[in-house]
Each structure stands twice: as structure tokens, then as C-alpha cells.
Specification:
2 copies of one chain form a homodimer.
Chain A lengths: L2 H5 L3 E4 L2 E6 L4 E2 L2 E2 L1 H15 L4 E9 L6 E12 L4 E9 L2 E11 L9 E2 L26 E7 L2 H4 L8 E8 L9 H5 L8 H4 L7 E8 L8 E6 L2 E3 L2 E9 L5 E10 L6
Antiparallel strand pairs in A: 1-2, 2-6, 3-4, 5-8, 5-12, 6-7, 7-8, 10-11, 11-13, 12-16, 13-15, 14-15, 15-16
């Protein structure tokens, strides 16, 4: 069992009621990464629902989580043959911290047309890309990043002004990415707005939605993260994720508040 | 009072409990438009929350709605000085139909940086653009569309293969778009995948998330709707909306199932 699987494991404590734990190693500053927390909700949903794979999952982050136990109360909301719906309320010491709503399906049973206007971008190999020097980011102990674009944002404090990071991402223990890990990887890049203003300030997530499209093949994921519009301190962050075979496995969008630190 | 305001009005029937009604005029086929339904939830949220404007709103469509009364039970989920959170359960005859989660704020009090990598695209004027011939779409009685690109999809059955519609949209009675109407306009274009496969089949929304950025100025909204990835019958639809002054007022993303009708 890989580190991610171990540290997102849940225990059933009642009907549709689960307990997880937020472990060290996944924090950015003092706060566990929102994608990591969402992955624990993803495990609870998988345990409670007749369908086993996230199709679309939306999380609202009401107040920051802390290390330690987290209570996951799942409520089934109905559904049909192909899709089922549920919500998860994630609480710590009785306080609602994160509210998740999801549609689950069996991804391997999806049938329908395929089409894409965007092909997987061509990246240099994992081995030829650089890790951004992000000192003191505990999360980087668990999730390894290799940037193809935007690395100068960190290495030379030279933002390229693009609003975009491109790069590879993987479990740092080399673990195979499962479909639940996509919920975590969807929040694993630095905020792309750092490529405009530099790696300064605090960019808390208000809401994160992940659409999962396929089970990823083993190997690092290739990703592109982009902010197009920052409006009076509110930005979206859009992500696209391809597996090592070139298959699109997920897309993500979050609403974030951008708090630039003034020097 | 404009038609939209009248037909999304709610009545308080208890603490944080409201009743709306789904009117004729807003259906696509037999089913009321999902954005129209979401706007009614938006009114209930506005009535229940201390903050008055949607910041980000996410709806899961569990089962189709029908014309007639709709019950909106709001639950407050907490929040802080700048943002408050709530959910709405929308029921008809006791059955949960739509589940909405939202973060509300006061948009005029937002402060922070502005930046954009995408400018408002240059469109010909409203008067110089064509309405797509979408016969029998009742929704077009309420929401008028003028397409800048993709109109041949309908007029000549010649999809341009782009995955994109560009165009103007407005209340057909000329009503001023308010911030709640953005929730409806976010689901007002035909599915952009029609530009690839033609205007055939059924594209039900699983989940729709709208980020609102500003109060729109009077006049038609300018929009771009794009599908980038259709994966075994699942597509995202991304929208950007600018008001008549060129200000970005909202972005949207939905998860839709694409059911192409075979001829």
C-alpha cells in the first residue's frame, strides 16, 4: 500500500459514516492541502455509493482543517443506473469544515463519443524537468512536481506573466495514481497566478470541482494549470491532467481568493 | 419588473424555507432549463444569507424538474466577514430534484488585484448577428441569442468543428440582467459540442458551477462557450460572459452527458 492510500484510508463507524485522519506531510503552511482532504471524502463516497468512481466532485472549503481525525458523514441523494449522487459533510471536533457533493459512476462502463480540441501538450521527459525550489512546503514531501514552464517564478523570482504552469506530478513514493488520487492531484500545483505576481501571498480555495474522465495508467501525470481571469482578488484555476499514455484523466476548476503580500 | 424577475420570484414559507415556481417559457423539450432553476435557488440564497451576491454556486441535477411549484430549503453552513456558505435543496412533490451549494459575498466590496490573459473578444454588434433557427425551443421565448460563430450548425446543418459558440444573449423582453440572471445565462447557449456533431441528441447537465465576478451593466451579454474534451460521452462546457461595458461578469463550467442521436 502506498503512502497516499494509507494516509487517505477511512474506517466505517456507522451506516454511511466514516472516519479519516489528516496526516502530517500534506500541509501547505499550517493547513492540509484541499485536494488531499477531498481525496478522503472521495474514499468515503466510494465506500457508500453503488458506483465506484468520481465523475464530478465539488467541494466548498468553509474553514481550514487541522491535523487529526476527520469525520465524514455521507448522505445518499439518489441516482440512476449509470450515476449516483451523494454529499459528504467533513467535520473536525463537531465543526463543519468541508462540504462535498458528488456524482459517481463506473468510468469503465461509460460509452459515447470521444473528441478533443486540445491534444496532450508535448513535454520534455520527467527526468529532464526541474523541481521548483519551494522551501518549507511540507506538501512537496508527498507530491513531487517537475515544472516544464514557470519554474523561473521560483528559481529566479522571474514570473513569466503567463498565468500558467505546465509540468509533471506524481506521488513522491512512486505509488501508482488511482482514480481517487486525481482529486488530490487537482490541487497539487502552486497557484498559476504566481506566474504573474511571483510566489507571494496566500491563495485559499473557496471551491474546487474535479471532473474525472478515466482511470490513470501508472506513471507521472502531465498537467497544465491556468488562471485566465483575476477579478478584484478572485481567480479561477483550471487544470487538465493526462496520464503517461496520453489519455485525458481529469479536468479541474477552483475558485480561489488571491491575497498578494505587499512588500 | 421584468419577466425573468417575475418568473424566478420566491415566497418565504418558513425560516430559510422558500417556494418558487417553474413557469412555462423556460423549457428545452419538456424540461425547464437548468440555469433557470438555478436562478430560483440563487434568489432563495440571497434571501437567506447575510451576503447578497453569488461568488460561486454549484448545482447537481439529480432528476429532471417539471413545471409548477418548487420547494427551496436553505441551510446556512457558516462563513466569515466576506463570504458566507449555504446549500439549497430543491424539491418537487417531496422529491429532491436539484442540490445547490454556494458561497455568497458582496461583489462591490471585493478588493484585490485585477488581471486577465483573455480580453473580451471583438464581436459584431447585436443587430448585425443572427439568431440560430432553433425550432420548437420554448426557452428561446425568454432568452434571445445572437450567434457570432457556429450559426451554420443550425442554419445549414454545417458544424464548424470548433467546439465553440460565440454570441450575444439577453432577456427577450429587454430586461436588465441582474447578478442572479447570470446563473441562468450560464446555461443559455446550445451545447457547444453541437458544433462538432450537429444539433442532434440530448445533452443533460450533471453539474453546473458558476463563478460570478461582477454586477452586469445593462445590455446584452457577450459570451463564449467551449467544449475542449468529450470523453466517452462526457463533456465539460466552459463559458465566459462579459457585459456591455467589456467587464467580465461570470465564468461557468458544467459537466454534461452527450447523447448523440444516431440517424
Amino acid at each position: 500500500m502506498g503512502q497516499f492510500e494509507r494516509e487517505t484510508a477511512i474506517e466505517r463507524v456507522g451506516e454511511n459514516h466514516f472516519r479519516g485522519e489528516l496526516f502530517e506531510g500534506w500541509r501547505i503552511g499550517a493547513v492540509p492541502n484541499g485536494g488531499y482532504v477531498l481525496a478522503i471524502a472521495g474514499r468515503a463516497l466510494r465506500a457508500a455509493l453503488p458506483h465506484k468512481d468520481p465523475l464530478t466532485v465539488s467541494a466548498f472549503y468553509l474553514t481550514p482543517t487541522v491535523l487529526g481525525p476527520i469525520d465524514c458523514q455521507v448522505e445518499l441523494l439518489g441516482g440512476g443506473r449509470g450515476t449516483s449522487f451523494a454529499e459528504v459533510r467533513m467535520r473536525q471536533e463537531g465543526q463543519l469544515k468541508v462540504k462535498v457533493t458528488a456524482a459517481y459512476t463506473d468510468l469503465d462502463k461509460l460509452s459515447g463519443e470521444n473528441w478533443s480540441v486540445v491534444e496532450r501538450p508535448h513535454f520534455p521527459a520527467w527526468e529532464d524537468c526541474e523541481s521548483p525550489p519551494q522551501k518549507g512546503i511540507e506538501f512537496r514531501e508527498r507530491v513531487e512536481l517537475r515544472l516544464v514552464s514557470g519554474v523561473q517564478t521560483f528559481s529566479e523570482r522571474k514570473p513569466d506573466g503567463s498565468g500558467e504552469f505546465r509540468g509533471w506530478v506524481r506521488h513522491s513514493d512512486g505509488g501508482v495514481p488511482d482514480v481517487i488520487s486525481l482529486l488530490m492531484f487537482a490541487d497539487a500545483f502552486p497557484p498559476p497566478i504566481f506566474t504573474v505576481f511571483g510566489p507571494v501571498g496566500w491563495v485559499p480555495t473557496v471551491e474546487l470541482t474535479v471532473q474525472v474522465r478515466a482511470h490513470p495508467a501508472p506513471g507521472p501525470l502531465q498537467a497544465r494549470l491556468l488562471t485566465r481571469h483575476l477579478t478584484r482578488g478572485v481567480a479561477e484555476e483550471d487544470g487538465e491532467y493526462w496520464d503517461s499514455t496520453g489519455q485525458l484523466v481529469a479536468i479541474s476548476r477552483q475558485t480561489a481568493k488571491v491575497r498578494i503580500a505587499k512588500n
